[in-house]
Amino acid sequence: MEKFVEFAELILSLESAASVSDVYAALQNYAKRIGYTRMSAFDLTRGSQCFTDALIHSHLSQSRIQNWEPVGSFWKHPLVKKSRESVESFPLSAVDFGEVSELHCPLGPGVNAKGAAGGWVVPVHEERLTQAFMTFVDSKPAPNSQAEDLLKLAVYATWNKTKSLADHVPDEKNSTPLTIREVECLRWAAKGKTHAEAGKLLGISPRTVRFHIQNAKAKMNVDTRIQAVTRMLRDQSVKAPAHRATNFKRTGQVQSRRNYWWFTF
What we know:
The chain is α+β, with helices and mostly antiparallel strands. It has helices at residues 2-16, 20-33, 51-54, 62-65, 78-85, 145-167, 180-190, 195-202, 206-220, 225-235; strands spanning 38-43, 55-58, 90-91, 119-126, 129-137, 253-257, 260-264.
């Protein structure tokens, strides 16, 4: 009975969630209550080339995420391949990590070719295509059939709420556009650059980079840099003043479309 109460509380939290960060905070809390202390979620609909592009949520720190596999290896990664091939959820031990080291594993310390950590992976399917997958990691036994079914329902409910929030377009009059500099800083953050590295590339100080990213987070109503980058990549467009678009010649392609500048990363 307790498992159903916990699941019902998750559904209520999802219904009241006003942002993607609220959604995954609710799922993270649910995961902890059923014994999984580490949770990550990845969106496979973005045409990503690396884990940081596909990332929706992770318990890991930004410094850890920057160590993930380089661009180009994402679709060949054993975790991604297994998630795309599997119709049902599966134990982490079913993934053959091969030569992937702990450092390059997106699930965190203790997960490598030896499968040192236990855990569960839940792919999300729609129309026979894998849309996303979410991982739940800890050194606990695999869930029984009832617990597995509830976890799968929790993941699908979370994904549906994520899409619902993504489909909601804020009133243009009430939204605050990001500046070109804020977009530049987030763009380099998406590439895994630190404040110091991004500052060197942009010709500004690390403190200024941090300032612009903080402003972007406030405008997007998110709590972390990862969430801001995720939001920007998901939207794929950022409203910005046209007169500064030429500044992007060094860092990306820019195309004008109505009142928006669309950035190809």
